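Researcher: I've been going back and forth with a colleague about how IclR family transcriptional regulator might be arranged in three dimensions. Neither of us has a model we trust, so I'd like an independent prediction. The organism is Haematobacter missouriensis, in case that matters for your notes. Sequence below.
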Amino acid sequence: MTAAEPRLVPAVERARAILDYISEAHEPPAQAEIGRALALPKSSLHGLLVTLTALGLLNEERGRYTVGAHVLKWAGAALDQSDMAQEFNRLIGAIPTLERHTITLSSLIGAEVVYTSCRNSTAPLGVTFRMGMRLPAVFTATGKAMLAYLPPENRATLTAEFPPPLTPASVRDRAGLEAEITRVRQDGFSVDNGQVRAGMTCIGAAVLNRAGLPVAGVALSMTTEEASPSAIAEAGEAIADLATRLSRFTALA
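Model: Here is an independent structure prediction for IclR family transcriptional regulator. You can compare it with whatever you and your colleague have in mind.
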């Protein structure tokens, strides 16, 4: 170990690995599954799970584990202290077209988008966006927008294993996704036409850094009944404006 490298505490490293694994699991895992995946001894794993549960970092029900509510306190503090989230919340009140709609901010984490800030409207979308919510990037408006500005080889890696569709409208393969991405680059915004939830249409745009790479995505959600061609065009212009303002903010930060 060089002088510049920090000395890490193994128990903390293992605790983080456990939290990461459980947070990314599609179904709550049991202790045996966690142990196999992380190659942790049964005795030390049991002690860590008991401790994390007692501290509110995990929930245990019938021998299976989910992330605990105390983690949300940390996530909320991180977002409150995030310059990007603060600027997002300031700007969505400054663009009139955005006022009546659900507006979200998300990041691309692997092949998923993770929602980092949300303002839900009263429209009956059938979905309530929340901080920490994860969805397959290929189906979401923000995911499509961010994928459109990745280098093709990076995008190919992230979409090598296509997820099962969420609705009958969900894009089914990489060829269909690439056709959508071509339109995103042409129009400056993306459209999720009921691919996440039937009856909901979302319009998204990418927040880019100085190198032109995506650092976040923003989206506006409306009911499909509202989503006329003119409404989509108006929403696309507004959400692209929001993304451009956040991109400028990112460049100055």
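Researcher: What would you highlight for our discussion?
Model: I'd start with this: The longest helix spans residues 229-252. After that, consider the following. The two ends are 33 Å apart (CA to CA).
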